[in-house]
Amino acid sequence: MTATDYPAAKASLGAYGEAIALGDFVALLKPRVMSLVVFTGAAGMLLAPGALHPVLAIVAILCIAIGAGAAGAINMWVDRDIDALMTRTQKRPIPAGRVPPNVALGFGVTLAVASVAIMALALNGVAAGLLAFTIFFYIVIYSMALKRRTPQNIVIGGAAGAFPPMIGWAAVGGDVTLASAILFAIIFLWTPPHFWALALYKRGDYDKAGVPMLPVVAGREATAWQMFVYTAALLPVSLLPCVIGLSGAVYGAGALVLGLLFLASAIRVITDTGDTGERSARRMFPFSILYLFLIFVLLLVDQKLPVAF
After folding, report:
1. Residue 73: what are its φ and ψ, rounded to 5°?
2. CA 124 to chain centre
3. For domain 1-8+21-176, which CATH number applies: 3.60.21.10, 1.20.1530.20, 3.30.930.10, 1.10.357.140?
């Protein structure tokens, strides 16, 4: 049985209003997700050697934001059937009947093409190519090919969310370096425990929609151990900026503390047997967002400190 076999999905996708509010177009862009993408992309741009003219820097950030929003809109078009079945997504513009699917698709494709074209014309081909590949990867590889087929969907598909700092870096220098690859790796390893924390306490939604998220397929215990593995792997990788000279002791100390706290959160998910582990997962999810935000803040702050530090 697929998601479209559910009566709720068919009913939810039936009636569309005549007018589409501006707020619904904004919602299609997934602004909360976009905000973290824009922040990490801007951080990559600021960490890269060299500098952009302020106007070009703003253009680069806008292109990353618009590209991320475009991917979000097309993702909502792809997932419109399963979104109608899950409590946390039923009120999105398409399943709620406020935006027709074809309008959402056209909106997303237009923004995707525009963001890549402007990035190529205003900045450089490397940054534009990375942006185009990121949009393609999120829509085709993750949303279409992996999400409904494998419990490892977020492990592979999570790479899409790890590209923004590389795009920001490339916007400045027109290249991909070891430093930008490390920024990519930090987000890549962060994504599975971050998303599985959400999936643990929302697994009923994914089960109902037929999405094979790891908690649905393997259960809470196996998922908790996988989260531990990725947070443990993330800890040494998060310290690599110190090894290559991208950051110093201030970042290193902060990243170590944050990494240990993140690891402790994963351990609590393993040991929490009450309420099927939902309480600890609910706490780990917002902390994971704070973790990534602070990691990049520390990178930026550390780079601006005197060499003596």
Report:
1. -65, -45
2. 24
3. 1.10.357.140
Which tokens go with 156? 């592979």
Model's pTM, two decimal places? 0.88
Q: What is the pLDDT of residues 202-245, one digit of tens each?
A: 888 888 888 888 888 888 889 999 999 999 999 999 999 999 99
CB 94 within 8 A of CB 12: no
Q: Which of 215, 68, 62 is nearest to 152 (CA)?
A: 215
- How open is the CA angle 268-33-259, to the nearest 5 degrees? 35
- 171, 45 Cβ separation under 8 angstroms: yes
Beta-carbon-side half-sphere exposure of residue 278 (alpha carbons within 13 Å): 6
Alpha helices by DSSP H, listed for the chain, are: 7-12, 22-28, 31-47, 54-78, 80-83, 101-122, 125-136, 153-157, 159-162, 164-173, 178-201, 203-209, 214-218, 220-238, 240-243, 249-271, 278-304
Q: How many other C-beta atoms can be found within 10 angstroms of the C-beta atom of residue 141? A: 17
Q: Which amino acid is at 284?
A: M
